[in-house]
Amino acid sequence: MANVSVYNIEGKEVGSIELNDSVFGVEVNEYVVHEAVVNQLNNQRQGTQSAKTRAEVSGGGKKPWRQKGTGHARQGSTRAPQWTGGGVVFAPKPRDYSNKMNKKERRLALLSALTSKVNDQKIVVLDEFKLDEVKTKKFAEVLSNLKVDKAFVVLDGEDNSNVVLSGRNIPDVKVSAVNEINTYDVVKYDTLVVTKAAVEKLEEVYA
User: How many helices (H) and strands (E) does the chain have?
Assistant: First the structure.
């Protein structure tokens, strides 16, 4: 089991914790992590883009000039793609980009991403993360104390509204409850900042 230090919000080491190998020490599968990230990004796409083909643009019913004898190339419609105002070749149409991923694959991808953070020493465990008021400046001070910038902060989900509201206005920082974490967010941010209670919940669910 990996043993990591536990810090308080002042950035001082206050203890240590052993991370369960079944959650934070699995064999990393980079392919499944990639599939999970692509899957999530695809599922976020609206797929509402649309353009008109030559059959859908208005006008262009009459042949511009006779077929032969003018010296021009033959043309059948002023709404063909090569004309200004013409339709689009293979125009994009609304479609559903979403795809499915097996539950076991999603689980393995998340555990692989968590393990990678431990292996790269990019995980910071806090004894607790609570703020008395909604204050972005105080949230930023905590990150400064921990010497992290681009951070994904995972909380236990118990009465963390002040922390969530304080952190949402900081660039390159995302705050999430432990039951809402996903592979993409773990991979996207440089450092994983997680409370001790959140670690226990992760181990309870995935161990």
Answer: 7, 6
Q: What is the pLDDT of residues 106-145, one digit of tens each?
A: 999 999 999 999 999 999 999 999 888 999 999 999 999 9
What is the pLDDT, as a whole number, of residue 61? Answer: 86
Alpha carbons 191 and 146: distance in angstroms, whole number: 10
Two tokens at 111? 């555990």
What's the pTM value of the predicted model, to 2 decimals? 0.82
Q: At what angle do helices 30-44 and 103-119 cross, to 10 degrees?
A: 120
| DSSP-assigned letters across all residues of 88-122 | -TT------------HHHHHHHHHHHHHHHHHTT-
Which residue ranges form the domains of the chain, and what is each CATH number? 2-45+98-206 (3.40.1370.10), 48-96 (no CATH)
**Is 1 in contact with 21 (CB distance < 8 Å)?**
yes
